Structures are given as C-alpha cells and as structure tokens.
Amino acid sequence: MTKLVLLLAVAAGIWLWWRRQSRLRPRMPAAEARALLGIGEQASLQEVRDAHRRLIARVHPDAGGSAELATKVNAARDALVAELNRKRA
C-alpha cells in the first residue's frame, strides 16, 4: 500500500511539474511561425520540415548562430506541426 501511495505521489508531482512547464513556454501564433519559416498558409508537413531544416542549418549555435534564434525556429516548427496534426485529426 505504501508503494502505491508513493507511486501516486511521484506521478502527481511529475504531472504538476509538466503542467507548469507547458504554461511557461510561450505559444507562437501560426502566422508568426509561417513568416519566420518563410512558408505559405497551405504548406504541408514536409514543407514545414524542409523549411525548418534549411533555416536551422543557418541559425544553429554550432553554425555560428544564436541559441535564442534557434529556439524560435524550433518553436515555429513545433507550432505549425501541432496545427497540421490538429487539422488532420
């Protein structure tokens, strides 16, 4: 019984931490994400991924870019992929 209570407490702690982290991350509007990646409104998932790869190759910190810009590019990709997945479902 003690193990079960401990397991539930750990699971609740992880869930609360995850919820807090997801609220702290700023959400990027889809229009801003498209503008950043340089793609149109009707872009497919493959086009989003290709645009992300091209841009991240230039702005990644290992390629002389900044971590902040790379984070924005990744957030743009994540926002658009999530939007496309919602449309599919």
Please supply descriptive tags for the structure shown above.
89 residues; mainly alpha; Helix Hairpins; 4 helices; 0% strand
Structure report:
- With 89 residues, the protein is an all-alpha fold.
- The chain has a single domain, classed as Helix Hairpins (Orthogonal Bundle), CATH 1.10.287.110.
- It is 76% helix and 0% strand.
- Helix 2 crosses helix 4 and helix 3 runs antiparallel to helix 4.
- The longest helix has 23 residues.
- The mean pLDDT is 89.
Which range does the strand content fall in? under 5%
Mean pLDDT: 89
**Discrete helix count:** 4
Separation, N- and C-terminal Cα atoms? 40 Å
Shape: elongated
Which fold does the CATH topology refer to? Answer: Helix Hairpins
In total, how many beta strands?
Answer: 0
Q: Give helix and strand order, one letter per element, not per position.
A: HHHH
How many separate domains make up the residues? 1
The CATH C-level class name: Mainly Alpha
